[in-house]
């Protein structure tokens, strides 16, 4: 490698070889956790082949791994304006999200917000960017915006437990906005993701039951009550819940279902 660098007259001829060597050395150093050595090789690679999107991404991700937040931002924030960015939208969006997270580490939320927005321009379905935007909106008191973003996130979350948590959070925001029908739909969708609820779901079930009763949905409320009753450990409390559910149904004329709770 040094020999190639010391032959300036043949630099163009060896540019490809030098670039490949620096790329390979950077890869080896990163595997060994030698982030600064890898970074030096990536800088040299960028000098040999300036303006390559992949190298810019690698430089930024290297600084993220090394926890050098300012350096990471200095590389990754350039992604949005790179001439090849449109060819690799998912990679560019991921890089911009990492830049935004680095800005948050630096306590610069406004700049982070702009980078998250830039990421969504390249990948409108990027869950990390959507979630961050939802948190920013909620923190700023914009519950409607936060709820809308959570609604976009939920279908994209593969883990059912995490998806249920997103839906419950959306329901909480909608309930705070007094959009009860939408809140109830979010809560019930979350409950449906727990076919065998545990005590951890009792708060969610309680919120669902409350809105079902307000909406006059007696049968649905009865079903939710049954789930809560099954989880209640105190025999006296369980009996009281049964009586409440039965009385509510009997009052509404649901005699058969009401007797089932007694």
Please tag this protein with its features.
disordered C terminus, 0% strand, 262 residues, mainly alpha
Explain what the structure shows.
- This protein has 262 residues and is mostly helical.
- Helices cover 74% and strands 0% of the residues.
- It has 15 helices and no strands.
- Helix 10 (160-176) runs antiparallel to helix 11 and helix 11 crosses helix 12 (202-214).
- The N and C termini lie far apart (84 Å).
> What is the averaged pLDDT score?
89
Distance between the termini: 84 Å
> Percentage of helical residues?
over 70%
The SSE string, one letter per element, is HHHHHHHHHHHHHHH
What is the number of helices? 15
**What's the alpha carbon Rg, rounded to whole Å?**
28 Å
Judged by helices, strands and strand pairing, the structural class is mainly alpha
């Amino acid at each position: 490698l040094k020999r190639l660098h010391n032959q300036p007259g043949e630099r163009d001829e060896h540019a490809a070889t030098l670039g490949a060597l620096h790329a390979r050395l950077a890869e080896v150093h990163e595997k060994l956790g030698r982030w600064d050595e890898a970074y030096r090789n990536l800088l040299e690679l960028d000098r040999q082949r300036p303006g390559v999107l992949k190298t810019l991404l690698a430089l930024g991700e290297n600084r993220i791994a090394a926890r050098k937040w300012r350096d990471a931002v200095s590389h990754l924030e350039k992604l949005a304006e790179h001439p090849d960015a449109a060819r690799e939208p998912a990679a560019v969006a991921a890089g911009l999200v990492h830049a935004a997270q680095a800005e948050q580490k630096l306590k610069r939320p406004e700049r982070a917000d702009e980078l998250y927005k830039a990421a969504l321009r390249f990948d409108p379905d990027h869950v990390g960017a959507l979630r961050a935007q939802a948190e920013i909106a909620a923190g700023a008191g914009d519950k409607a915006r936060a709820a809308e973003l959570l609604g976009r996130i939920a279908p994209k979350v593969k883990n059912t437990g995490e998806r249920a948590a997103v839906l419950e959070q959306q329901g909480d925001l909608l309930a705070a906005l007094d959009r009860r029908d939408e809140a109830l739909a979010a809560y019930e969708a979350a409950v449906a993701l727990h076919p065998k609820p545990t005590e951890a779901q009792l708060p969610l079930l309680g919120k669902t039951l409350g809105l079902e009763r307000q909406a006059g949905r007696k049968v649905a409320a009865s079903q939710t009550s049954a789930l809560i009753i099954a989880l209640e450990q105190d025999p006296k409390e369980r009996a009281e819940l049964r009586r409440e559910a039965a009385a509510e149904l009997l009052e509404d004329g649901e005699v058969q279902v009401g007797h089932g709770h007694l």
